[in-house]
Amino acid sequence: MKVSGAQILFKALEMEAVEVIFGYPGGAVIGIYDELFRQKIRHILVRHEQGAIHAADGYARASGKVGVCLVTSGPGATNTVTGIANAHIDSIPVVILTGQVPTALIGSDAFQEVDIMGITRPCTKHNFLVRNVAELGKVVREAFHIARSGRPGPVLVDLPKDVMQAEMEEEDVCFVSGYLYAEESPDNSEIERAADMIAAAQTPLIFSGGGVVLGKASGELRELARMIGAPVTSTLMGLGAFPASDPLWLGMPGMHGTYAANMALNQCDLLIGVGVRFDDRVTSKVAAFAPCAQIIHIDIDPVSIDKIVRTDLSIVANAKQALLAIVARLKEKNHVWPGAIRNWQEQVLEWKREHPLGYKKGAAIKPQFVVEKLYELSRGKAIIATEVGQNQMWAAQFYHYDEPNCFITSGGLGTMGFGFPAAIGAQVARPDSLVIDIAGDGSIQMNIQELGTAVQNKLPVKIAILSNSCLGMVRQWQEMFYQKRYSQTVLHNNPDFLKIAEAYGARGLRARKVEEVEEVIKEAFATEGVVVMEFIVDDEEGVYPFVKPGAPLDEMDLGPMETTSREVARDGDDPFSRSFN
Amino acid sequence: MEVQKEVQKNVISILVNNKPDVLARISGTFSGRGFNIESISANVTRDPAKTKIIITTIGDNATLARILKQIARLVDIIEVVDLTGREAVRREMFLARLNWSKEGNRKKVEALVENKNWKILSADDHTCIIEMTGENGALLEEVMMLEKLGLEDFTRTGVVALENGL
Predict the structure, then answer these.
(1) For the segment A15-39, what is each residue's pLDDT rounded down to a tens digit?
(2) Angle at A143 between CA A137 and CA A145, to 5 degrees
(3) Residue B63's pLDDT is what?
(4) List of chain B residues whose C-beta atoms are within 8 Å of the C-beta of residue A149
(5) pLDDT exceeds cutoff 80 at A427
(6) What are the start-end ranges of the H helices in A268-318?
(7) Considering only Cβ atoms within 10 Å of each terminal Cβ, which end of chain B, N or C, has fewer?
(8) Taking the CA of residue A227 as centre, how many other CA atoms within 13 Å lie in the half-sphere pointing to its CB?
(9) Which among A171, A404, A411, A161 has a CA at the least distance from the CA of A281?
(10) What's the N-to-C CA distance of chain B in angstroms?
(11) Radius of gyration of chain B (CA)
(12) CATH topology of domain B89-163
């Protein structure tokens, strides 16, 4: 029996256990969409191709599976490029299926033709142009293997229209991928050395990142931290891998990191970096980064090793395997907390008590207060997606994450407009979870059209707009470094977000006063469908602490932090009593 | 023409799957970091599914080390070896066209070719084409000496290199 390219494509997707495709039809993929009509696979029709790639990305982050999006050639393909770069820098496994003009027309400037291979070469982990129907099955399978193996990333498959229409004998179709990826196992001598360094450390600090979430190594991370009594800090991408409710948790380090995390980085004698890439938003001045520490760096990608900071020991391995091996080795050696550990934990606690995250209460609604209320009223159980800017930092600081895959944010690229479509993808992945997009009034307008997608597909995402009528993060920089010249950062004539919500068939709620905040959130959570909440917040509010770019991490502007937001351990409690030892 | 002073050139040998876009991926990794490829030579190996690419480049070692790691993680790359400073043979071939019609030049050229173990590949009364191989720095200097003997144009293969046996 003969089968078409389009049929082979769906067969390959089925073999990869793909449950959902985020996509948008067009001329070059009309044949694929015709076949989709007969298939059982779920398809979420977005309103813009950027929405499709971000939704696939959010789906991947929330589920730990590969996200898939399908778009047409030319503009359909180019509209995904921002989202591909976003997934690439954050190492998110997605497969992007793009239509292409028929093989014979490639290179002829045909209608809706673009060299998407050339355009996406530097921002994909790999990309394929399928040249004939015989290699199609194999290539699609290979794309999935590449996307999810090693350091994950986006893989694009370009599908010429004629290849999708071409037919071949079913028995000749090959789905066997030739791609082999040999994961490096941690080297025994390196593990031994890591264990020795840990045993000798007086003030160790664990610094974990997105690699721990991607590598599903959160359990191993917790075990190591408690076993050695080391406090833990984590990058934006790594939030949730270590529970924020644990007494060893310090919060995020870096430019907007906590006082305790930055001080700990500054004074630790051993830094154990796991699945991190020492981004400049964390290290700030590299020469002054972790100045007293020996550094162990565990990462699956050799490119990350010694890229930014010099390491004393590097272990190229999957985070889970490396952590397991170190824990096992420490157990064999009957590791006990060195005497100095208790003093170090006390010191860290002192820093947490001295300068916890906080803000000054006032007459206007404070954005941090909204995030705190979201945390409180969702009992910390929601999946939080964010846009980019101040809203993102407040969502990282004032919502507290106890589990991985619950904080979905554009870490490396900083893509405004990411949060809402990503939240849609997360809601598809986890239909029973409460998914909230914490947004700004600037960012939300970058992909607000996806309200149509959420409403049509009954994906009850809740959007919380921290509305300050400006592009807050840039405005804050203008205030701090550009003598308050607010060049093009004031948003006049914002639309009425409630009316927009209603026009799309969603619900709109607004809080103007502090006392309305709780009411609005409760009402939103009690509503079944999509809700847009607009909180009119203090437009002068800034994100603090603030380490100026290029300054050492201990030079923090702590800002006006009168009200401590979160209860730090009360005097007399021993917060570490439930840890090991 | 001025002979460039020989600086530390890095010679990289890369074994890749023989696919149409592999070269673009490699060169993109160099150009994306502002690195100039000095020379490149690529050819299929004994196994026709694989190609060996030899690249010479100049640049700071830290950046180059990162580029090599980035190349090594590309999907179609099988092996990356930095031959710089290793025991390896590096050769380059030049083809040079000379106008030897000036009185006495033909004799001088023929003597030089004989002496240097070069080859004359084609010749007529006016011009000849010479094949020369050697270490690329020294060879370039010698080619420049041919200016006086009527050098019209030349072309070069770029460096090829092979590691010594153990």
Answers:
(1) 999 999 999 999 999 999 999 999 9
(2) 105
(3) 83
(4) none
(5) yes
(6) 280-283
(7) C
(8) 21
(9) A411
(10) 40
(11) 19
(12) Alpha-Beta Plaits (3.30.70)
Search chain B and give the residue with CA nearest A118.
Answer: B24
Max alpha carbon distance in chain A (Å)? Answer: 77
Judge whether A57 and A67 are in contact, CB under 8 Å. yes
**What is the rounded distance in angstroms from the CA atom of residue A344 to the CA atom of residue A208?**
19
Q: Which CATH class is domain A2-172?
A: alpha beta
The segments of chain B whose pLDDT lies below 70 read 1-8
Per-residue confidence (pLDDT) for residue B7, from 0 to 100: 54
d(CA A394, CA A252): 11
- Dist. CA A71–CA A89, nearest whole Å: 21
**Model confidence pLDDT, tens digit, residues A294-325:** 999 999 999 998 888 989 999 999 999 999 99
Q: Say what the pLDDT of residue B59 is.
A: 81
Instruction: Indicate yes or no: CB of B73 within 8 angstroms of CB of A303.
Output: yes
Using an 8 Å Cβ cutoff, are A386 and A419 in contact?
Answer: yes
CATH topology for the B10-86 domain: Alpha-Beta Plaits (3.30.70)
pLDDT tens for residues A242-286?
999 999 999 999 999 999 999 999 999 999 999 999 999 999 999
Beta carbons of A213 and A238 less than 8 angstroms apart: yes
The percent of residues above 70 in pLDDT, for chain A, comes to 96
Active-site position among A39, A112, A294, A456: A112
pLDDT of A326 higher than 80:
yes
What sign results for the dihedral spanned by CA atoms A152, A253, A81, B76? negative
| Contact between A55 and A425 (Cβ < 8 Å) | yes
Going by pLDDT thresholds of 50, 70 and 90, the confidence category of residue A563 is low
**Neighbouring residues of A574: CB distance < 8 A, sequence distance ≥ 6:** none
Q: Quick one: which H or E segment has residue A472?
A: helix A472-481
pLDDT at position A576? 52
Q: List chain A domain ranges.
A: 2-172, 188-354, 358-544
Q: For the residues of chain B, what is the DSSP string, one character each?
A: -PPPPP---EEEEEEEE--TTHHHHHHHHHHTTTPPEEEEEEEE-SSTTEEEEEEEE-S-HHHHHHHHHHHHTSTTEEEEEE-TTSSEEEEEEEEEEEE--STTHHHHHHHHHHHHT-EEEEE-SSEEEEEEEE-HHHHHHHHHHGGGGTEEEEEE---EEEEPP-
Give the integer Cα–Cα distance in Å for A394 and A390.
6
CB pairs under 8 A between A and B: 25
d(CA A255, CA A542): 13
Q: How confident is the model at residue A178 (pLDDT cuts 50, 70, 90)?
A: confident
Give chain A's contact residues with B (Cβ, < 8 Å): 117-118, 121-122, 125-126, 129, 146, 150-151, 179, 301-303, 307
Identify the architecture of domain A358-544 in CATH: 3-Layer(aba) Sandwich (3.40)
Q: Give dist(CA A471, CA A167) in Å, integer.
A: 52
Q: How many C-beta neighbours within 10 Å does residue B157 have? A: 16
Please state the domain extents for chain B. 10-86, 89-163
Question: What topology does CATH give the domain A188-354?
Answer: Rossmann fold (3.40.50)
CA-based nearest distance A125→chain B, Å: 8
Domain pair B10-86 / B89-163, same fold: yes
